[in-house]
Design a protein that fits this description.
Number of strands: 5
Helix content: 40-55%
Strand content: 5-15%
Order of helices and strands: HEHEHHHEHEHHEH
Largest sheet: 5 strands, parallel
Structural class: alpha/beta
Radius of gyration: 16 Å
Bound molecules: shikimate-3-phosphate
Shape: globular
Distance between the termini: 19 Å
Strand order of the largest sheet: 2-3-1-4-5
Number of helices: 9
Length: 179
């Protein structure tokens, strides 16, 4: 993993793509990293919401998850093809191995990892995640977390976020990459 990263490190000018489970802080860290680097920040969920003019929750409930996943891969491809940027992605984007491959070969992929307990605390008051129903919130979250635990490990760099501020995490990424 580390050797791999060193090689990618030489690819100056590549975008940084933040991957990780829901609630790992991809958007917050991405915005902070955008301030530090002066690179523009985008988020695949926001890009989808702007394009569709509705919320992710509505897209899931009206058109279903597979429709959302199609939008997600299209937005990802466009974002990767464009200018250098910081891109936060939805936690499920790596469910499709083709997306993981796309991210790995077209960006510097950074995985944020956070303990399940912290994620539960962060997300329990948020009503915007369509995959986490109120009546089985903790159970569903735990199941998804366990199902997806290894899916982010293809990243060039893995950053553990517990006990760190968004600024510390962004600095760690900045210091480990040549962007
Ligand atoms: C999803 C994560 C969400 C969003 C959608 C599906 C997932 O993004 O893309 O609700 O499958 O994990 P965040 O990771 O930003 O919550």
């Amino acid at each position: 993993m580390q050797e791999d990263f060193q090689k990618t490190n030489l690819h100056l000018g590549q975008s940084i793509v933040l991957i990780g489970f829901m609630g790992t802080g991809k958007s917050t860290v991405g915005k902070t990293l955008s301030h530090i680097t002066d690179l523009p920040f985008y988020d695949t969920d926001n890009l989808i919401e702007c394009q569709e003019k509705t919320s992710i929750k509505n897209i899931f409930s009206k058109k279903g998850e597979s429709y959302f996943r199609t939008l997600e891969v299209n937005v990802l491809k466009n974002a990767l093809a464009g200018k250098q940027k910081i891109l936060a992605t939805g936690g499920g984007i790596v469910k499709d191995p083709a997306n993981a491959k796309l991210i790995k070969s077209n960006s510097i992929a950074i995985a944020l990892k956070t303990d399940l307990k912290t994620i539960i605390n962060r997300l329990k008051s948020s009503a915007k995640r369509p995959l986490l129903p109120n009546d089985s919130f903790e159970e569903t979250l735990t199941r998804l977390y366990n199902e997806r635990v290894g899916l982010y490990d293809f990243a060039h760099l893995i950053v553990h976020t517990d006990e760190k501020t968004p600024l510390e995490i962004a600095r760690e990424i900045y210091d480990s990459t040549l962007i």
